[in-house]
Amino acid sequence: MQRRYVTVDVFADRPFAGNPLAVVLDAEGLTTAQMQAIAREFNYAETTFVLPPRDSSHTAHVRIFTPRSELPFAGHPNVGTAFVLARARSGTDSVARFQFEEQAGVVPLELVRERGQVVGAELTAPEALSVRSEFPTQHAAACLSLDASDIRIDGHAPIVVSVGLPFVVVEIKTREALRRARPNLAAHADTLPRDGADGIYLYTRDVTGSDSHADLEARMFAPLDGVIEDPATGSATAAMAAFLAHLAPGADAEAKLRFSQGVDFGRPSLLETRTVKRGGAVAAVHVRGRCVPIMEGRLEL
Questions:
Q1: Which ranges in the chain are annotated with CATH 3.10.310.10?
Q2: Is 176 in the active site?
Q3: One of 28, 41, 46, 229 is an active-site residue; which one?
Q4: What is the model's pTM?
């Protein structure tokens, strides 16, 4: 039987930038083993499989796989899958929102249109911010092939945070140190996973020159998942934006940030976040991005 697929570049405004995603449509009847094999075949950071929803009020049941395992939630797969479904379905001009059933819960998405055309989507994280255990600075430095002196700890220590998928988040002092960082597989294997996190999201506020269009510059390493470096990580960006809002003073606020990622990987990406804080707690975090269609075809199974 043939299965349709579409690939898109997510968090990008031009081809061959952002984070590539494969979306397998008509996935009903595929086994978990088959989905995992297809994800290995594409060998993207993630591949999604679109199934009929369990609840008819939702848009679809979406399963997300890395080349090695299934994920409960991820950012760019949601944004890209919403974009693909909006383009594939007839009569979507009147549709503004989708709801995807995933392991982490129901993920709401709002379609982004320009001049009547769908150009991307904005997701709402499915879980409240979870701030977990700290990660020793020396372990973080080893995982990133950096010195401990390259890591900034006056705002926060390296720590595990999540809004659906946990990551270790680490602030780097300078853009130059962020550029020098390299994933150390042995150090990752020795110290991770921690509190469910096996990926490290590193960022800096030192954005100048070519990075001046963004508020922060970031990278993400997850070699234990078969992802040496991810060019755009929506789930980690959402967790980071929520954590920064959590740390900020004030009980009620709405903050918007622009995150640049993938520059040092050769696939520049732009992720826009919107965080709502009410009564001193983060009430919601949203991540928005554009998408570009790249390929479509059929799988022979």
A1: 2-124+289-300, 130-288
A2: no
A3: 46
A4: 0.94
